[in-house]
Amino acid sequence: MPHSEYPPIRHPDDHHFDWKRGRILQAYQVILISEGQGLFEFSHRGRTQLVQSGSIVLLFPGVWHRFAPDPELGWTENWIECRSTAFDFARTAGLIDPARSVLPSTPEFAEVFEKIHGLAIEEGLSNQSLISTLGLQLLALLSRQSELASAAPADRLVERARVLLMERCTQRVSVEKLAEELGVSYSHFRRVFREKTGISPKQHLVSLRIRRAQDIFANTDKSVKEVAGLLGFSSAFHLSTQFQETVGCSPSAYRQYSVIELP
């Protein structure tokens, strides 16, 4: 909460710290900041990063750090502590790195994090095997986000765009607005995206929608008009035209070819 004491009293005694001293943990800790913003400083004093809503803060055992929410804005945090040789291995292999401690979250990461957090709060001991399995999934997602953070800016831009386009491909998406959301001009976004993928952002969006359409036509009896509405096409004609150009046949023909006759 804004203007409140930090860390809050509910913090475990062995995890408390003050800003002047900082802290060194003996385990890994994954923190998800869902609202607000603040500052994080680690390793060598003076390396300070802004932590915003939607950020992951990954703390490493033996690494000095300190962090605190903005006094005016506060933040909402949830954390999970991990003691695992899998995390040690990932650190040794460079898959996770203290130099990349602040990472952007994703809907997939947040979903796994919330599952682990919920299970640990309910009955941690009885759910230990499931928590361990989800912990490995969380580590894989952390490794992927860490890899993206170390990539070149153009690679990060394109990967972020591809994730957003995949999440929103069933909506009416403006790639021009997407470029604005990503903080770049549309001309730069289009050029970089084409250089990295070989196609434009609009072509990539169409291909995502057509792949979804193929799944729907193969597994349901929804009409072309219904599918067009579900996938953000302006009309059934628009979907049929794009489908023909991409797949090489009409939706009705594709549906006929996809039917498996049982003996």
Question: What descriptive keywords fit this protein?
Answer:
10 helices, Arc Repressor Mutant, subunit A, 263 residues, alpha+beta, single chain, 49% helix
Structure at a glance:
The chain has helices spanning 85-92, 107-123, 128-150, 153-168, 175-181, 186-197, 201-219, 224-230, 236-247, 251-258, and strands at 28-42, 48-52, 55-59, 65-69, 75-82, 102-104. The protein is of the alpha+beta class.
Walk me through what this model shows.
This protein is 49% helix and 16% strand. The radius of gyration is 23 Å and the shape is elongated. It has 2 domains: 13-150, Jelly Rolls (Sandwich), CATH 2.60.120.280; 154-258, Homeodomain-like (Arc Repressor Mutant, subunit A, Orthogonal Bundle), CATH 1.10.10.60. α2 packs antiparallel against α3 (128-150), α4 (153-168) packs parallel to α7 (201-219) and α7 packs across α9. With 263 residues, it is of the alpha+beta class. The chain has helices spanning 85-92, 107-123, 128-150, 153-168, 175-181, 186-197, 201-219, 224-230, 236-247, 251-258; strands at 28-42, 48-52, 55-59, 65-69, 75-82, 102-104. Strands 1, 2, 3, 4, 5 and 6 form a 6-stranded antiparallel β-sheet that branches. The protein contains 10 helices and 6 strands; from the N terminus they run βββββαβααααααααα.
